[in-house]
Amino acid sequence: MIALGCVGEVSPPVGARAADAGAVGPALIRPTPADVPMAEGSLIVADDASVPAVDDVPFAGHEDVPVTPAGPPDPGRVTLHRLNRAEYNNTVRDLLGTTRTPADDFPADDRGYGFDNIADLLTLSPVQLELYQGAAETLVAEALRSPVIPPARVQLEAETLTATVGAATATAWTLWSNGDLRAPFTPTRAGRYHITVRAWQGRGGPDDARMSLLVDGALAASFTVPNVAAAPGEFGADVTLAAAPVVIAARFTNDFYDGPTRQDRNLYVDWVRIDGPIGLVGPPNVARDRILTCDPGAPAGEAACARAVIRAFGRRAWRRPLADDEVVRLAALVDVAHAQGEGFEEGLRLALQAVLLSPHFLFRVELDAAPTSLTPHTLTDHELAARLSYFLWSSMPDDALAALADRGALHEPATLRAQVERMLADPKSRALTDNFAGQWLYTRSLADHDADPTRFAAYTPALRAAFRAETEAYFDAFLREDLSMDQFLTAPFSFVNDALARFYGLAAAPGAGVRRVALTGERAGLLTQGSVLTVTSHPDRTSPVRRGQWVLDQLLCEPPPPPPPDVMGLGSEAVPTGSLRRRFEQHRADARCASCHSLMDPIGFAFEHFDAVGAWRALDNGFAIDATGTLPGTDATFDGAANLAALLARDPRYPRCVARQWFTYALGRGPEPADDAGLDALARDWGAAGMRLRDLVARIATSYTFTHRRGEPAGGSP
Question: Residue 38, exposed/middle/buried by CB under 10 A (0-12, 13-18, 19+)?
């Protein structure tokens, strides 16, 4: 959808009622910016008419959920949650040990509230189902791959070879007297090989033809060849070969010819085939060893082995124990394979593919005992384990988490908090940086942002990668080191490599990766990092509107109101007649624009000392820069990005917004009005406790809303 607005276009809330169209505040249902603000317009803002704004995908809102005046809080409910692309890739990695990332080829996941794990939007298309099937086939084949390396095969047609006697025909070599047909061969490696010769005889005299197989003149085997042209025979022997050229020969040894009766015994050779090395074993297949834990040839039999394998594999894949009837239905696929002439392993492949194609794998299934009841109930421990692991790891529960769920002990608050600490210490919690921070802070968007190379030659792929690495390492430091989030916007340090240090004008930071350095001057905290400044700009210039709206959306959770219709954007100037701020202020004189821009522009102007790729500048196209303003909703004034960041860090809206962002990502749904009181309490208590991310994660994971759910009346929310 192309929406033109008063220099800055903000799309109306998706799913909001018409009466709410002008509302501003965290209670309003509003899917927030998506991954690619420049290419896809996902900031839902355009500084000029040439840049379209794209709404998030519409979905059923939650704004009408009734709030019960007494009793337990309403935990809401999460729609059956399909694994998104990141979750699918991580899950098959942890389930099968694969390095494949099949979901990279799946359709992009729709996004709402700023994230791509919102359950209401994770639909399933026929095309995606076909891709799931192909992925399941590939993944299971890889997982069950035998470590025994199948022998290579080389087949040499006799008519292409040379011999001491005879001649080639269209399909064979005729040895019409005693002699050798020679086949040169160079093994790829030393080992045991099987040599096969396909031959038949032309009968003559009382005996059948005799053939010897030789390797470099040494006898390997001798054969009687009773076969005739209508039914050739194959004659083979195993030999040990070095990794050096050899000559394999098929020798005719009992030629016979009787002139008076014209009986003539000849030997005909069709081809010589070499298979090997035989019995070569490659690296062990850990996935196979973990899956195939029994011997189908054992006395218990194939059926018992199939059930055992399916039960264990299905338990991990479906994130819960399988019922007996589920195991029986899956094991029946082994019988189907047998009926079609296939072996046990082929049947097992079908069963494991079925496990990976089941809704119990592709979706995070949470059930309500009374689906239409609004009375909250506790999640089962297996459902809770899945919620927790996909929150912190974007992946399936590990064995430790599953064992606690099996014992029914996970829901105990002390146990749950201990698991949060353990899981945050695990390398898999890197998913929070990739998937939560990558969307909240827009580092994912860098991959799709192109700056005008004629204006910003310094913006190279290497610098873009350094931008992303800086912000990821910075976020990770606050998570790992348990730093207070009131410093997140202002901390006097960052993470740079040598190229980024030069770009920022800092001392060299040699080394391949980014490393921690102290910052001075105007660089401090998140807001002056190149990643944020770049993705909130246009390819050819800065965007005070985008930068202002990014702060309002991502840090204050107070998106501007939607723009009035039919308002043209800011035009371009071949020769600048003033700073960008001056041009915006002239445009904002239109009363229809003031409501939007009075909120966004002052914030955005604070960043004008940083160009469209985050480099410091003293002038804007030769004009003085005015970076002063008043923070909307307050009387506090600022001058520059660092001063603004200090105000934001003390603003009570900031901790509430941070808590709201984490809440949304953790639950996979947008906040509802019934959540407001809980979010207020969460932000208040978290702020009083020091605003540390690990504490916030633990508070959300042990909250009533995270550990409970309810049903939904027939026909949806009343």
Answer: buried
Helices (H), ranges, 505-565: 530-535, 544-550
For residue 265, the SS3 value is: strand
What b-and-e string marks burial along 447-458, b requiring 16 or more CB atoms within 10 Å of the CB?
eebebeeeebee
- DSSP conformation class of 554: I
- Residue of 452, 657, 606 lying closest to 30 (CA atoms): 657
Of 313, 396, 136, 365, nearest in space to 330 by CA: 313
Helix or strand run (H / E) with residue 331? helix 324-339
Of 551, 641, 556, 548, give the one whose Cα is nearest residue 598. Answer: 548
Cα separation, 344 vs 333, in Å, equals 10
**DSSP secondary structure string for all residues of 335-376:** HHHHHTT--HHHHHHHHHHHHHHSHHHHEE----SSTT--S-
Cα 513 to Cα 383: distance, rounded to the nearest angstrom: 39
CA angle 608, 609, 612 (to 5 degrees): 65
Comparing C-alpha atoms, which of 90, 123, 91 is closest to residue 107? Answer: 123
State both tokens at 406: 């099996």
Residue pair 247/182 in contact by the 8 Å Cβ criterion: yes
Buried b / exposed e over 541-556, threshold 16 CB at 10 Å, is: bbbbbbbbbbbbbbbb
If one counts every other C-beta atom within 10 angstroms of the C-beta of residue 659, the result is: 27
Residues 6+ apart with CB under 8 A from 670: 29, 31, 62, 112, 113, 118, 664
Cα separation, 441 vs 615, whole angstroms? 19
Residues with Cβ within 8 Å of 418's Cβ and at least 6 positions away in sequence, in order, are none
The residue type found at 546 is R
**Please, what's the b/e burial string for 365-390 (b: 16 or more CB within 10 A of its CB; e: otherwise)?**
bbeeeeeeebebeebbbbbbbbbbbb
Tokens of 292: 């195939």
CA distance readout (Å), 309 to 86, 329, 342, 567? 27, 13, 18, 64
Decide if 121 contacts 59 (C-beta within 8 A). Answer: yes
Q: In angstroms, rounded to a whole number, what is the distance separating the alpha carbons of residues 467 and 645?
A: 19
- 8-state DSSP, 623: E
Which residues have a Cβ under 8 Å from the Cβ of 437 and sit 6 or more positions away?
443, 471, 472, 475
Which residue numbers in the chain have pLDDT < 50?
Answer: 1-69, 718
- Domains of the chain as residue ranges with CATH: 79-144+287-365 (no CATH), 152-281 (2.60.120.260), 371-718 (no CATH)
Secondary structure in 3-state letters for 149-179 = ECCEEEEEEHHHCEECCCEECCCCEEECCCE
| H or E element at residue 325 | helix 324-339
Pairs from 484-488 (Cβ < 8 Å, separation ≥ 24): 484/690, 484/691, 484/692, 485/655, 485/658, 485/691, 485/692, 485/693, 485/696, 486/649, 486/650, 486/655, 486/691, 487/525, 487/649, 488/525, 488/526, 488/649
Q: What is the CB neighbour count within 10 angstroms for residue 281? A: 9
0.85 exceeded by pTM: no
The pLDDT value recorded for residue 579 is 64
Distance CA 529, CA 370 (A): 50
Pairing outcome for strands 628-630 and 637-639: antiparallel
504 in helix, strand or coil?
A: helix
DSSP labels, 593-606: HHHHHHHHHHHHHT
Could you tell me where the DSSP H helices lie in 525-640?
A: 530-535, 544-550, 580-587, 591-605
The DSSP bridge pattern shows strands 173-175 and 167-168 to be: antiparallel
For residues 202 and 266, what is the distance between their CA atoms, to the nearest angstrom? 5
Q: Give me the pLDDT at residue 589, please.
A: 55
The pLDDT of residue 220: 97
* E strands present in 44-158: 81-82, 148-149, 152-157
Q: Is 334 helix (H, G, I), strand (E, B) or coil?
A: helix
- Please answer whether residues 712 and 367 qualify as being in contact, where contact means their C-beta atoms are separated by less than 8 angstroms: no
Classify each residue of 292-304 as buried b or exposed e, where b means 16 or more C-beta atoms within 10 Å of its C-beta: beeebeeeeebee
